[in-house]
């Protein structure tokens, strides 16, 4: 039997049969504990404009700034200050533009249907440009709907300015620590990667696979954070280079530890203590200590000792070796526009979602013009929030949002019954706003549980509709979820497919590129290693999202799990063999490396084209390359016969 507690479970529980996947999909990976700083920041962002307008005797004038602050605060999802500012600015610009469009088109009758469809198409197209575009596209659609449906006293320009002012207030709170610690986010991300590495050693005998996956995810996040921060230096940025060097060292330690498995050895306790001290030193909790002198009697032990000792020296302030800054692809305006055009022109998935979003928004807007439902703009708002092309499973969001709305509407009704209209409403507003980041971290159901009463209370400040507003919100939201399922999910064959094949092929191809250069060393090899493991991390995300579809789809997705495990073995075997080769083991012949990489590339081509891989040429063992060829054979056998 379903219970509310299932809304709090993680997607990993899906594999253990804890609950249906469509009840546990997260918006972002679930944290170990609530982020109290983020919760306080969102509460202050939302209530700040309301307190200011209350002091001026015009509480309702704080509604639009509070909405802008809420959107901006939720757009702040961590990372470097530069990335945070860009995402918040995207949400602010999109919401302000959407309000101007919606308010200007209000009262135009059936023409508002065309406006809603046009804005939904533009929103979907802008979303493919990246994180800032996605947030801006969503907020433009949301505020267009609110501008069409809510009678705000402010005009188009005044209201848009008020919304932007609220977003600016939230941005100030988000970047308040920048003058004191401009590298705080990057340093924290690097320390988090080393904490995950220390956790891997702690869980070496119990839960090593999960800890290894967690480390790879933390490493990817750290690289994205460090490389996403714009350097303030005119020339080489020594601090940024040092952080990149620390992440490169974390890869060396990880691969050296995996090489111990190849030799049938275990990490010594001294190694675990040294890595824990490194993580503590990076977090400002002491100094890094070298491991006690160990007898390095094998290539794997030499690799581990060398990697850990070099990391201790780097943390202790030694000069950063040259060539640590990875080569990055040029990303000027022309290159970015070109990539965006390619996504729009050849992105079949983006085009399909654009049509689906436009169709559902058109149906919802037409329904609102029939005046069958009171405050039917909530229907359009639900469609906009549920049918977003880059937020995972549509089915899971619709079901979770329906469940969360039921609970949230009950909470909103209770608050409106208990708390009289007026300044006292700021207390529950602050509470629900503070809980939003936690709900956002967990899943759509819990986020809706906190978001619904918050929005209901904000709108009640303007309308004074009382407890009945929560009931209206509940009915309209359920109708919106039904529109999404009936018009945006069921009729589309792509909804019932498991989209694991293309990203799986990309991960195989990235692993093949890494294998071709794994024994050459240097920055290019480190970059290819990161690309391969990033592709594997992206594949896990796609797999996790696909598990949240109904059983008819998720059952097909689970058949990919053995192949994913086999591919991870290939990548780990490549990393371990490269570490062993660097510290004394014989290097494989270039011909054997080329044959094995070509085999992987052939697998990638077959999977991408939807052809079976049974006709692939079998590989023979070749001395130092035997662990890799054995892993590739296992991958081939797992995929044999699969179209």
Automatic annotation (TrEMBL):
It is a multi-pass membrane protein. It is found in: Cell membrane. Keywords: Cell membrane, Membrane, Transmembrane, Transmembrane helix. The keyword Cell membrane applies. The chain crosses the membrane at residues 108-128, 160-180, 353-372, 378-399, 411-438, 444-462, 474-492. Residues 364-487 form the Integral membrane bound transporter domain. InterPro entries: Memb_transporter_dom (IPR049453). PANTHER family: MULTIDRUG RESISTANCE PROTEIN MDTO (PTHR30509:SF9), P-HYDROXYBENZOIC ACID EFFLUX PUMP SUBUNIT-RELATED (PTHR30509). Belongs to the YccS/YhfK family. This is FUSC family protein. It comes from Sphaerisporangium rhizosphaerae. The lineage of its organism: Bacteria, Bacillati, Actinomycetota, Actinomycetes, Streptosporangiales.
């Amino acid at each position: 039997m379903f219970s509310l507690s299932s809304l709090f479970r993680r997607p990993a529980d899906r594999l253990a049969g804890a609950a249906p996947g469509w009840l546990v999909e997260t918006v972002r990976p679930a944290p170990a504990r609530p982020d109290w700083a983020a919760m306080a920041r969102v509460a202050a962002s939302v209530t700040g404009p309301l307190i200011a307008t209350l002091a001026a005797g015009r509480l309702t004038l704080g509604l639009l700034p509070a909405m802008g602050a809420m959107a901006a605060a939720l757009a702040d999802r961590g990372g470097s200050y530069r990335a945070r500012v860009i995402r918040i600015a995207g949400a602010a610009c999109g919401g302000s533009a959407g309000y101007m469009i919606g308010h200007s088109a209000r009262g135009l009758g059936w023409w508002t249907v065309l406006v809603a469809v046009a804005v939904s198409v533009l929103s979907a197209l802008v979303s493919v440009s990246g994180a800032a575009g996605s947030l801006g596209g969503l907020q433009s659609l949301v505020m267009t709907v609110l501008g069409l449906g809510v009678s705000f006293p402010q005009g188009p320009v005044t209201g848009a300015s008020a919304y932007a002012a609220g977003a600016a207030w939230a941005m100030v709170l988000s970047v308040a620590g920048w003058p004191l610690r401009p590298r705080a986010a990057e340093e924290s991300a690097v320390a988090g990667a080393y904490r995950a590495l220390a956790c891997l050693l702690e869980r070496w005998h119990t839960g090593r696979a999960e800890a290894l996956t967690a480390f790879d995810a933390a490493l990817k996040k750290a690289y994205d954070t460090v490389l996403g921060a714009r350097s303030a230096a005119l020339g080489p940025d020594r601090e940024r280079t040092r952080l990149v060097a620390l992440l490169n060292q974390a890869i060396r330690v990880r691969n050296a530890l995996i090489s111990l498995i190849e030799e049938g050895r275990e990490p010594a306790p001294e190694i675990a203590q040294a890595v824990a001290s490194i993580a503590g030193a990076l977090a400002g909790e002491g100094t890094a200590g070298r491991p006690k002198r160990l007898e390095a009697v094998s290539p794997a032990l030499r690799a581990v000792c060398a990697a850990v000792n070099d990391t201790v020296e780097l943390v202790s302030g030694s000069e950063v070796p040259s060539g640590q800054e990875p080569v990055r692809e040029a990303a000027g305006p022309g290159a970015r526009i070109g990539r965006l055009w390619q996504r729009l022109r050849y992105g079949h998935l983006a085009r399909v979602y654009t049509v689906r979003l436009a169709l559902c928004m058109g149906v919802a807007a037409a329904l609102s013009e029939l005046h069958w439902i009171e405050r039917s703009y909530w229907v359009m708002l639900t469609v906009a929030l549920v049918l977003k092309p880059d937020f995972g499973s549509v089915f899971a969001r619709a079901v979770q949002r329906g469940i969360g709305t039921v609970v949230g509407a009950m909470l909103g009704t209770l608050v409106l019954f208990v708390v009289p209209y007026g300044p006292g409403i700021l207390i529950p507003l602050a509470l629900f706003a503070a809980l939003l980041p936690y709900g956002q971290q967990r899943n759509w159901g819990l986020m809706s549980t906190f978001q619904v009463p918050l929005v209901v209370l904000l709108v009640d400040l303007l309308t004074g509709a009382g407890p009945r507003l929560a009931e209206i919100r509940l009915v309209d939201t359920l109708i919106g979820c039904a529109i999404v399922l009936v018009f945006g999910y069921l009729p589309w064959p792509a909804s019932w497919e498991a989209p694991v094949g293309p990203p799986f092929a990309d991960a195989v191809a990235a692993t093949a590129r890494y294998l071709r250069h794994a024994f050459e060393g240097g920055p290019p090899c480190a970059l290819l290693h990161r690309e391969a493991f990033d592709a594997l991390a992206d594949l896990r995300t796609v797999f996790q999202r696909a598990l949240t579809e109904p059983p008819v789809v998720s059952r097909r997705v689970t058949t990919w799990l053995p192949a994913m495990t086999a591919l991870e073995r290939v990548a780990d075997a490549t990393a371990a063999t490269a570490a062993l080769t660097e510290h004394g083991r014989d290097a494989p012949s270039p011909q054997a490396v080329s044959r094995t990489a070509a085999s992987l590339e052939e697998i990638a081509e077959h999977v991408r084209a939807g052809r079976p891989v049974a006709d692939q040429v079998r590989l023979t063992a070749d001395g130092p390359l035997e662990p890799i060829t054995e892993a590739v054979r296992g991958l081939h056998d797992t995929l044999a016969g699969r179209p």
